[in-house]
Specification:
- The chain has about 350 residues and is α/β, with parallel strands linked by helices.
- The chain has 15 helices and eleven strands.
- A hairpin with a 2-residue loop joins strand 2 and strand 3.
- It has a single domain, classed as 3-Layer(aba) Sandwich (Rossmann fold), CATH 3.40.50.300.
- The strands form four sheets. Strands 5-7-4-8-9 form a five-stranded parallel beta sheet, sandwiched between helices. The chain has a two-stranded antiparallel ribbon with strand order 1-6.
- The structure holds zinc ion.
- The site of zinc ion has 8 residues, from helix 4.
Length: about 350
């Protein structure tokens, strides 16, 4: 499936220059700074993405790795509330990034699949000469993304992107493409909270009537995924980019302190309005995918810890998750027997 991107804004088109028969966005000449939130899903990353994206000069884009899939599927909403394929913000960015060109979504999705095969991932982690067979795919992958993110920075007059894709291999791919200044923010959350969030049914509005709930995943699968994704986030993050690990629970307990620390880690001199009082005035963010509740909240958004899992995650599920993820829980300093909140 292809989509034609005709320039939407002339002033953005003017920032491109001819280069060997193609075009190159000026900003893409320098490496684009991107803070990649890595780890497993349901860690509160959408909220943190949007808090960081409320700092001047920073743009929150949500799980932008999935953009081609979302545009091809025509079945999901952007954080602004519009169907993804109708969002004017993304249409303008795509038009500026790929003036008069078509993106073949199927080709790009297949390219990413090749780069994420187990053999390719081993090469990506090893780096150096092991990257040689992947060179062409990495170049094409990085260039497409660099043009898109460059156009977004231009559009917003911003200096850095925050992406909450989480899937650790995305940060790895961007880092290995050589076109990005990637900072890996490994977000960790208690495995029982993640298990509860992932195993409960949650309304997930879609453009069509099909699939009105997010996919539900079993307790055992989620425990395995929590361990594997966190391990991969740590290995790939430490090997390929400046790496910072933050616990969701620490962030929401002291949002001002952790926001300042993360922004400093990303090399961004800015602060988030309202963060000292843990109440952030949020504009609409055009975040892709992400938690359907957190992505669309706007106005004054209060940052509070979500502890529903302590009361509502069934005891048996809690025990199974604790046993299966015990090494990671201890590594990340979580108690094996969490305290019940007082009624
Ligand atoms: Zn939008």
């Amino acid at each position: 499936m292809k989509r034609d991107y005709t320039p939407a804004r002339k002033n953005l088109v003017a920032t491109t220059l001819p280069l060997s028969g193609s075009t190159l966005i000026l900003r893409a000449v320098t490496r684009i700074r991107i803070l990649c939130i890595t780890g497993v899903g349901r860690t509160g990353s959408t909220l943190i993405d949007r808090v960081l994206g409320s700092a001047p000069g920073v743009v929150a884009v949500g799980e932008s790795r999935a953009l081609w899939v979302r545009l091809r599927g025509r079945n999901s909403f952007c954080g602004c509330g519009e169907p993804q394929h109708d969002c004017g913000w993304w249409t303008a960015a795509l038009g500026a990034a790929f003036p008069g060109q078509e993106i073949d979504f199927d080709t790009e999705i297949a390219r990413e699949r090749r780069l994420m095969s187990p053999k390719s991932v081993a090469r990506l982690i090893a780096g150096g000469r092991w990257l040689r067979p992947l060179r062409e795919d990495l170049r094409a992958y990085g260039e497409l993304r660099a043009r898109l993110y460059g156009a977004i920075l231009e559009q917003e007059g911003a200096r850095a992107i925050v992406d909450s894709t989480k899937f650790p291999l995305y940060a790895l791919l961007l880092a290995r493409s050589g076109k990005f200044d990637v900072r890996a923010l490994h977000l960790v959350r208690d495995s029982r909270a993640v298990g509860y969030a992932r195993t409960k049914l949650r309304a997930n509005p879609k453009v069509t009537d099909a699939a009105t709930t997010q996919m539900r995943v079993g307790v055992t699968t989620m425990a395995w995924r929590w361990t594997a994704y966190n391990a991969l986030a740590e290995v790939s993050g430490r090997r390929t980019a400046p790496y910072l690990r933050v616990r969701y629970e620490d962030f929401v307990a002291e949002p001002a302190r952790w926001t300042a620390r993360v922004l400093a880690f990303a090399g961004i001199e800015a602060s988030v309005p309202g963060i000292e009082a843990a109440v952030v005035p949020m504009a609409r963010h055009h975040v892709v995918g992400s938690n359907p509740v957190a992505r669309e909240a706007s106005g004054l958004v209060r940052i509070v810890a979500d502890t529903a899992w302590l009361r509502e995650f069934p005891r048996r599920s809690k025990v199974v998750t604790t046993i299966l993820t015990a090494p990671g829980l201890l590594q990340y300093r979580y108690p094996l027997r969490p305290r019940q909140p007082r009624p």
